[in-house]
Design goal:
The protein contains 15 helices and 20 strands. It is an alpha/beta fold. Strands 7-6-8-5-9-10-11-12-13-14 form a ten-stranded mixed sheet, sandwiched between helices. Bound molecules: zinc ion.
């Protein structure tokens, strides 16, 4: 194939990384492999905004072919695509710069004149990134935001802007170590992604390295309520000095602390820090979201944002899609879509739903994500599903990037719990929604990181059809504010 004008050093060295060419050089497109993934879509938006021509392909639409990247100047692969994939090999042989999504993002951000804020942690990254972006936007900082969930106000996975970059920093595959954050947030550190790291010690070491990079600049912000994040914060303080790491959360000793103004009115929050306090009304339910708001606010303080403006921005953020997102209603049934795929996240999401609708029956349709995670955490999943919901239906395991593991099925989870947790297939799950319509107030949440979201949308569409045929428009269409409809619209999930 013919390539022209590629810069020296664009070729991928063995074991090294290719370099993104300068934007707008007219040398060909940056080809994104796995372009439909959340992280890739945000990267695409940022690349196009910077003047790159972008092409892409995805397994879910047309599959892959070694000819896809022909004529491109670089190939960026998602972490789901192995380095020895035929399309990647063909691109490298043709002389394209070949790199992972994380490498491309790191290079893109280093090429800007503005600082990078990296939002890391086992849980809550997407919501905190979205919140911080919304707060920075309201405070006039004009941020570039890259977030792992779709945010309706930005019509996608990124907000473009010339100010500081606020990016979700993923620990999977050590991706976040490609970033150079001037300000690092660590929300929680748990034994996740053991396939990459092998041990909790190795995970903590990677987080400490990530957070330490911000030392001497704007420092590290860590969640005081999470033992893992606390260890990282203390490590950074020991290594670089007490002023390099500040805590946030609900704990009484946190530097930046969020609390409900009065018990029962949980959406009205007061945020206190060493030099002041503000109040805000949040659209996001639950204890974990109060922590997320405190974290985003702490970052915004470190960025020098006006506290009142930042608080107004945080209060207006309705959440990213699939984070307790209300999809529709059928009579007394509310259908919710949620991304929780770790026992801690399952517990937090179920608790948040209980908090917003204390009297409603709560059914969860849970889809385990990854065979390795299911086998490692089946007991914890079973316990949290049993404790958090009135009834749990467990779909077959969604393998994503993994081949099946012998003997690892969703019944590992149901067997670890009582009779309220049982396995089901997709048809049974949809039947539950239809059956529930005959009863009283009922929340049905479809939960998981896999394609369970499609099932949730199917259920919502079926509900709209039933509702539309007999009873006029569904309640969901009555919400006047599209932003509120994502996340936790008070009119729907809320009381
Ligand atoms: Zn392809």
């Amino acid at each position: 194939m013919i390539r022209t004008g590629a810069p020296a050093g664009a070729r991928s060295a063995p074991g090294g990384q290719g370099r993104l060419p300068a934007p707008g050089a007219g040398t060909g497109a940056v080809h994104l492999m796995g372009a439909k993934g959340a992280g890739m879509q945000g990267l695409e938006t940022a690349l196009e905004w910077l003047g790159y021509e972008v092409s892409g392909c995805d397994l879910s639409s047309g599959g892959h072919d070694p000819r896809h990247a022909k004529g491109a100047v670089a190939l960026v692969r998602s972490s789901a695509i192995p380095p020895d994939h035929p399309e990647v090999i063909a691109a490298a042989r043709a002389g394209l710069a070949v790199m992972t999504r994380a490498e491309a993002l790191g290079q893109l951000l280093r090429g800007r004149d503005e600082i990078t804020v990296g939002i890391a942690g086992s849980h809550g990254k997407t919501t905190i990134t979205g919140l911080t972006g919304a707060g920075a936007e309201a405070a006039g900082l004009d941020p570039l935001v890259l977030v792992g969930g779709r945010v309706s106000r930005w019509d996608g996975y990124a907000r473009t802007g010339a100010g500081p970059a606020v990016v979700e920093a993923d620990e999977y595959d050590r991706s976040f170590l490609q970033l150079d954050p001037a300000l690092a947030l660590v929300s929680s550190v748990e034994a996740e992604h053991l396939d990459t790291y092998g041990s909790l010690e190795a995970i903590e070491s990677a987080f400490a390295e990530f957070a330490g990079r911000a030392a001497g600049r704007l420092g590290c912000v860590w969640c005081a309520d999470d033992p893992g994040a606390r260890r990282i914060g203390q490590l950074v303080q020991e290594r670089y000095g007490a002023g390099e790491a500040m805590s946030y959360g609900l704990a009484g000793d946190a530097w930046c602390r969020a609390m409900p103004v009065e018990p029962g009115a949980t959406d009205l929050l007061r945020i206190k820090w060493s030099e002041g306090e503000v109040s805000l009304r949040s659209l996001l339910p639950g204890r974990h979201n109060r922590q997320n708001i405190a974290g985003a606010f702490a970052v915004l303080l470190r960025l020098g944002a006006d506290p009142e403006a930042a608080a107004a921005g945080l209060g207006g953020f309705g959440g990213a899609d699939r984070r307790l997102q209300t999809l529709g209603r059928l009579r007394h049934v509310t259908i919710v879509d949620d991304y929780a795929h770790h026992p801690t996240e399952v517990a937090a999401s179920l608790a948040a739903l209980r908090e917003t609708r204390p009297g409603a029956r709560l059914t969860v349709v849970f889809q385990p994500h990854l065979y390795t995670r299911t086998t490692a955490l089946a007991g914890d999943f079973g316990r949290e599903l049993e404790a958090g919901a009135d009834e749990a239906l467990v779909l077959p395991v969604f393998g994503a990037r993994e081949p099946p593991l012998l003997g690892v099925t969703s019944s590992l989870i149901s067997k670890a719990a009582g009779p309220s947790v049982r396995t089901c297939d997709r048809t049974e799950a949809l039947d539950v929604v239809r059956g529930a319509a005959a009863g009283g107030e009922h929340l049905v949440v479809f939960m998981g990181a896999g394609d369970v979201t499609d099932l949730a949308r199917e259920a919502a569409a079926a509900a709209a059809e039933i509702e539309g045929s007999g009873r006029g428009p569904a309640d969901d269409s009555a919400c006047p504010d599209a932003e509120r409809r994502t996340g936790a619209c008070r009119a729907h999930v809320g009381a």
